[in-house]
Hints:
Elements lengths: L1 E6 L3 H12 L4 E7 L2 H11 L3 E5 L7 H11 L4 E6 L4 H9 L5 E3 L4 H12 L7 H15 L19 H11 L4 H8 L3 H14 L5 H10 L9
Parallel strand pairs: 1-2, 1-3, 3-4, 4-5
Helix pairs in contact: 2-3, 3-4, 7-9, 7-10, 8-9
Amino acid sequence: MITVLIVDDQPLMREGLATLLNMKDGISVVGNAADGKEAFEKAKELAPDIVLMDIRMPGTNGVEGTRLIKEHLKDVKVLMLTTFSDSELIFEALEEGASGYLLKDMPADAIVQAMGAVQAGGLVLPPNITGQILQELKKTRGTETGLKEAPVPDALRDLTEREIEVLRQIGYGMSNKEIAGVLYITEGTVKNHVSNLINKLALRDRTQAAIFAVRYGITVFPET
C-alpha cells in the first residue's frame, strides 16, 4: 500500500484527486495540505510514502515545500503536479530533490503508475513533455538556464563508458531494475554503478544525477 499526502491550494482539486486515488488498489490518501509549509508539517506527522505536490501555490510554494521535506524527511518522496507553464519551477523542484513531475490533466491511472515507479526508486520525467520544456527554456532564457548548453564538467571524464550508459538511463527516469533490463546486467551491478557515478560527480542523490544527465546532454529527449 502506497500512502499519499496531497498538496494543492484549491480544496476542490485536493478533494477530487483524493476521491479518485482512494478508488485505486494499493493507494491510500492519508491527508492533504494547502501549501508547502503545511505539507512539511503534515508529512512530519503522517509520514506518507509520497507527497503529491502542486508546484505553484500562495504562501510556501511547491519548490520550497519540496526543499523542506527532502532536507528533513529523506525517506518521503515528492512528486510534483504541474502545468506546462511551470517549466522553470519544475527544474527547481527537481534540483531540490523531487522524484519527478506530472501534468495536472493526466488521468488518475497515469498518476498511480507514476507513484508506483517513484516508490520503486525510479524518477518520473515524461520524455515528450521534458523535451518541450527544455526547448522552451532554451528559447526564452538561452544559456542563462545552464540547461544542455553548459560546458561539460571535467568530472564527467572520470566516468567509465558503462557508468555513462547508466547515467543516461537515470536521466530517462528509469529504476535500477529497468536499467538492468536495458543494459543486460544485474540490478546489483546497476546499484554499484549508480553509487560510483554519484560519488565521482559529487552529486547528492539520484535526482541530481538525472538533472545532470539532462543538463549536459547525456540524456537527450526528442524535440517537438
